[in-house]
Amino acid sequence: MDLSIIIPAYNEEKRILKSLETIEEYLSSKNLSYEIIVVDDGSSDNTLLLVKDFSKSNNRTSCITYKNNMGKGFAVREGVKKSEGNLVLFSDADLSTPIKEMEKLIDAIKSGFDISIGSRALSNSEIIVSQPFYRKIMGKIFNILVRFLIFNGIKDTQCGFKCFTRKAAQEIFRRCRINGFSFDVEALLIGKKLGFKIKDIPVQWLNSPESRVHPIKHSLSMIKELLLIRLNVMRGLYR
Asked: How many degrees, rounded to 5, is the angle at CA 9 between CA 82 and CA 26?
């Protein structure tokens, strides 16, 4: 298997079918073997039914599901466990970063990097639809906290478009503990500690007005998770 694409999904009935059709259409034109793994993170809508129906006519798509909403970090870990690809890429269900941008990330892996991450913060990144100003401000505050508490050198840890070699994905995500949205920071920190080479890549990005990230509730949770990651570092849990 050349590529595994993992899509964490929570109550995505309005978008998941179109996204799967877009991904399948794009990948089917490429000369590679692939699988699409949707992780239904305890959805209470018809997300699971739509994915199952799609998979009946697209046998390279499968679904993992469980009852309770556990968080994006948990969902990605479950997807990595099941993945079989030499490369493992995860993408947001709304395709805020178009799937064609995966070519840039894969090229970076082929050039010798173990991890390539989409970035909205580089000078040549292309922001087609921008975030509201308050989300930009919160993002900047979060990045400052990441640099102060965890590590420096990566301008955008939270773009939901990242690619790993199989070895990097397995080694990193089996050590991860954070279930929420700050799991990206934890995964990159572990990657750094394990000596994997990381490259941030400028990508296209379109803000989705139906984002599942609540500006206050999830921001507070993410800050708490950063503090927990810092505590885990001090306790030596990522050695």
From this structure: 75
